[in-house]
Structure prediction request, 308 residues.
Amino acid sequence: MIIDAHCDVLLKLWEEDISFKSSDKLQINERKWKESPVKVQCFAIFVPPEVPDDIQFQVALEMITIFFEKIIQPYDDIKFISNKQDLQTLKPNERGAILTLEGCQVIGRDLNKLKTLIRLGVRAVGLTWNEANAVSDGIGEKRGAGLSSFGEQVINILNEEQIWTDVSHISYQGFFDVIKRADYVMASHSNVSQLCDHRRNLDDKQIQLLIKKKGWIGVTFVPYFTRRKEPVSYEHVIEHILYYVEQGAEDCLGFGSDFDGIETYINGLEDITGYQEFQNALRAQLSTDQFIKITYQNFINKFPRVKE
Prediction:
């Protein structure tokens, strides 16, 4: 059983009229998902920066409609996950789908838009993508500023609503600002900078703060977050997992593949079906308790939304 905290299927379904059931353009479709050991998949709302500001929120709503009309409603065995109880009560034949947000540029400076997204089912909120927005600078913004006053208001709402604050993509300063203010912190798809020096990866100081905060970290399958030199295989992903474990993060760790958000692939992890062989290799490197925690239990334990 696997829980995966990040993919960009909704973006591809929004960009093209393709079938979630069987399109080979998707790294995660219904057929592949069913053939994989993934029990729960998070689906991110990511509105590209080239979409004009005045329709960003509209596009986010369109992606939510796609989520329910193409992923939830057609399949009796795919259940919308809204809270921890939903996760814990999935039947053996059922799979769960969770809605997340990647980038608060879609809400502009309007807290009511954030509240609307939460009411519609968003359960983790990435504050930025790479660029700056009204909440904070992203990791690609040269200025490198942290949370704005508006951003602090956003986190207050996420705390009140028991929603994860996702620090993947946020500026370095923004990360530390979030740690101070947010009750529920995750890095949904970030690897280890010590093993691969990329701006999107976490350094040892950040890892230790996430552990102290009892946060959650998703190891990702982006090749250039995993290894600078090609080829990149799933053995290199396991190296990141083992490094996190050595740092004391075994109770904080899981997966955030970024399937359908990447154009180059790790050997053996070309799509969601690769999880089968990958988990078999990972099992050999971990104790049974560690394996269970990392593949799914940490995510369930830390899922913040316990009520409607």
